[in-house]
Design brief:
The chain folds into 2 domains: about 60 residues, DNA polymerase, domain 1; about 260 residues, Aldolase class I (TIM Barrel), CATH 3.20.20.70. It contains 11 helices and 13 strands. Helix 7 runs parallel beside helix 9 and helix 10 runs parallel beside helix 11. The model has no long low-confidence stretch (mean pLDDT about 95). The structure holds iron/sulfur cluster.
Length: about 325
Amino acid sequence: MNPKQNLLDLDAAAMAAFCADMGEKPFRARQLLRWIHVNGEKSFEAMSDLAKSFRAKLLDTAQIIEPVAIKDSTASDGTRKWLIDVGQGNAVETVYIPEDDRGTLCVSSQAGCAVNCKFCSTGAQGFSRNLSQGEIIGQLWMAEFLLRQNPANLSRGDRVITNVVMMGMGEPLLNYEPVVGAMRLMLDDNAYGLSRRRVTLSTSGVVPMIERLGRDLPVALAVSLHATNDALRDELVPLNRKYPIKELLAACNDYLQFAPRDFITFEYCMLDGVNDLDTHAYELVKIARIVPCKINLIPFNPFPGSGLARSKRERIQNFDRIL
Ligand code: SF4
């Protein structure tokens, strides 16, 4: 017997193909998408405008595999974190960050990460596996409909989550197809209907995939830069040995032809005595003259064994002033 199809693994085109295989018209696929992603419904019996015979077929052939949260905690500022079990002792994190004018969900794309950036605790854990499209979009599905249970979360409109950042665990561009499939659903009007400006993918700089994403599905782009010259970036972000800064900046400029925003966000984790000197700030200014950008200075979050420390507050302020 074939395993049941997890419908969270299907974007609009794949859902249409799945329905066509069952002899159903394309509009059935749209109805199904809306039940799942607009209404958060997971019971086929409750999908009242689908023909009974179709619902019976779905019961036999399809399922919705929900994420399993093993931890769900909310901080005093409203930030809510879920730790999601993805099997074989692995878990990924999904984080909801509420602000007055937006609700942002930070989504993971892989269990662990192979890039091994020196300042990242995920990198230190090593790589376990890629998440499926269903496991990626499932994080948004779970968070949106759990958060909707509290009417106070709906003060901004009928959706709680207004922005998604692919910035959780993993390098999204090393899990390309499932990430792009999940982002297609984020943008689909029959699913989450987010604009491309409100979906941001963050990459450590997988140059060929940045180029491909620009052609396939240009969303807002953030780049984990963290260093201003190749010698230092080779150490901090080992992927730089394959795709050095010059190639990365060229890929960013190429991407801007297609991007929904007219700048790239550069993330820069401030590491005491490593990348936070005045000379680095001046090098960063030169980079900002090559690529239209916003620079996000992030104080390092120390973890055991990293051998790194957070830049002092005054150092960050001085760096910021130079920029
Ligand atoms: S690519 Fe992202 S998740 Fe992976 S090690 Fe680097 S910072 Fe961490």
